[in-house]
Structure formats: C-alpha cells, structure tokens
Design brief:
With about 70 residues, the protein is mainly alpha-helical. It has a domain of about 40 residues. The protein is built from 3 helices and no strands. The longest helix has about 35 residues. It is rod-shaped and about 70 Å long. This is DUF1127 domain-containing protein.
Length: about 70
C-alpha cells in the first residue's frame, strides 16, 4: 500500500524560501565570525611578546586562541 502526500505549490514555495532564509542566515553568521576572528587576530598579532605573556599567551598561541574564542571552543 502506498501513501501519498500532496502539498500545494504555495507550501512548496514557502518551504523553499524558509530553507533559503535559514541558509542565508548561516552565511551571515559565518561572515560575522570571520570578521571577528580577523579583528582579534589583528589585535593580538601587533602586541609585543611581553604584552602577550601578560595575557598568558605566546605568539604561537595566537591562531588557536582566536579560533577558540570566536568559535567558543572549550
């Protein structure tokens, strides 16, 4: 026995727009994270080694620290 589900063209279009909106929102969120990461990396990379040490960081830790902070990795 087959079950058929029919939907109106309006429902199909609404679903497509909903999915597109969700995808677009995800793109904007990632763009925002990338901008935040760039700003934080730029801020940390111009600091002296002693300034970084005062924050408990070494220069080689900058990339990992930026990623962890921007993407909330614990």
């Amino acid at each position: 026995m087959a079950i058929s589900v029919s939907s109106s063209p309006f429902e199909a279009v609404a679903s497509a727009f909903s999915h597109a909106g969700t995808s677009l929102l995800a793109i904007f969120e990632e763009f925002g994270r990338a901008r935040a990461a760039k700003a934080l990396y730029s801020e940390l990379s111009v600091m002296s080694d002693s300034e970084l040490a005062a924050m408990g960081l070494k220069r080689c830790d900058i990339s990992h620290t930026v990623y962890a902070r921007v993407y909330d990795v614990r």
